[in-house]
Design goal:
The protein is an alpha+beta fold. It has two domains: 111 residues, no CATH class; 207 residues, no CATH class. Helices cover 60% and strands 8% of the residues. The protein has 14 helices and four strands. The chain has a four-stranded antiparallel β-sheet. β3 and β4 form a beta hairpin. α10 runs parallel beside α13 and α11 packs antiparallel against α13.
């Protein structure tokens, strides 16, 4: 573990890199403030707005690992969802207030920051709280996952709230459904060929929606799932398939970050030997953290793909895949946290270097950048 004294102070980093945090094109940030403006510019009607309370459109959602200091005892995982309200409505970078979903004073904070109270309009209040809850339940804020969960709850805001094209959405959806097909064939193996083909698409669609547990009974029984927990398990499996699909994109970003660490993360100005040692220690710490995150994700996905292949391709025991499904929600959360950290770290490096118009930085910005990436990864 890297000596914390070698890192730039976290409060100083937060102040200096607020814009990088809020602008990061990563899956840890959902900038409703910016997207709502885009939706409004494209003519979004009142029914197409994400929230019913207008002030909530100023929010920026940020996924953040919970520390002991901000630990929320009733949470089922360690990935928190922070709502950030800027002091200046026209400039989010001048600072603001934030609060985690689930904090004991969460309702009071929303009432103060956004005038968000049940007594004003109970129906609108429930609508908006449901959306906040959906966002909180996701381990990362990928546009595909966010749109999928909202659509599953019959909520369809204007497309500008999701930075994903129709073609990309369709391609990912088809990939996920293709991965679902074998479990339907496995569970409904008693159907003749004509029946199977006629029902296959319907049943795969049922798996996608994860609502009709009666129709999916054979799948639930074959995979030894608890009927009440089955919808959450199937949604988690969908998320794992999605993260597996995204690995090629993340891999390119991780390789780019690793290449920068290996050849360009050297200060370009003249510095004393003590400063050079600090840079080397922090850089080595980032390398280790990056390698460990990448290895952990690959191990998890390798276990999942081996279990999938053993059952649906090699026609071996269903035991490993059943075990995966029993732990799918935890795997989903772990992958979401790990991949969003890698994505965020790579984007922060890219954004800061772009700000300086160079991959090679002076000591101060380099030290800050390495410290920020280390904190993101750990």
């Amino acid at each position: 573990m890297l000596d914390p004294s070698k890192l730039v102070d976290s409060d100083k980093l937060a102040a200096q890199h607020l814009a990088t945090e809020l602008d990061a094109g990563s899956t840890r940030v959902y900038n409703v403030n910016r997207l709502h403006q885009a939706a409004s510019d494209r003519g979004a009607t009142a029914d197409q707005q994400l929230f019913r309370h207008p002030e909530l459109h100023r929010v920026i959602f940020i996924k953040q690992a919970l520390s002991q200091h901000d630990y929320l005892p009733n949470r089922g995982n360690r990935i928190g969802t922070k709502l950030y309200f800027s002091f200046n409505e026209t400039n989010a970078y001048e600072g603001g207030k934030s609060i985690f979903v689930g904090d004991p004073s969460f309702d009071e904070a929303l009432a103060f920051q956004a005038g968000f109270e049940r007594s004003d309009n109970a129906e609108a209040y429930i609508h908006d709280r449901d959306i906040i809850q959906i966002i909180d339940q996701l381990p990362s804020l990928d546009p595909f996952l966010l749109k999928d969960r909202l659509v599953a709850e019959s909520l369809e805001p204007h497309p500008e709230y999701f930075e994903i094209s129709h073609d990309e959405w369709t391609a990912i959806r088809e990939h996920v459904m293709k991965r679902f097909r074998p479990i339907v064939e496995f569970a409904f193996g008693g159907l003749d060929a004509a029946q199977a083909q006629a029902r296959l698409r319907v049943l795969v669609q049922k798996l996608w929606e994860a609502k009709d547990m009666d129709t999916l009974g054979p799948v639930i029984d074959a995979m030894d799932l608890d009927r009440e927990e089955a919808p959450a398990t199937l949604h988690a499996w969908k998320g794992v398939i999605y993260y597996d699909h995204r690995m090629t994109v993340i891999e390119d970003r991780v390789k780019d970050l690793a290449g920068w660490l290996g050849s360009k993360a050297e200060p370009v100005d003249l510095i004393p030997p003590s400063h050079k040692r600090i840079i080397e220690e922090v850089r080595d710490g980032v390398r280790v953290a990056l390698r460990e995150r990448w290895r952990a994700i690959n191990t998890r996905l390798g276990e999942y793909n081996d279990a999938y292949k053993a059952l649906f391709i090699d026609k071996q025991s269903p035991g490993p895949f059943i075990a995966f499904l029993g732990n799918a929600s935890d795997v989903f959360a772990e992958l979401g946290d790990g991949l969003s950290r890698l994505d965020h770290a790579a984007e922060v490096r890219r954004a800061i270097c772009a700000r300086f118009s160079s991959d090679r930085l002076k000591y101060e910005p380099l030290h800050q950048t390495l410290s920020l990436i280390y904190r993101i990864l750990t």
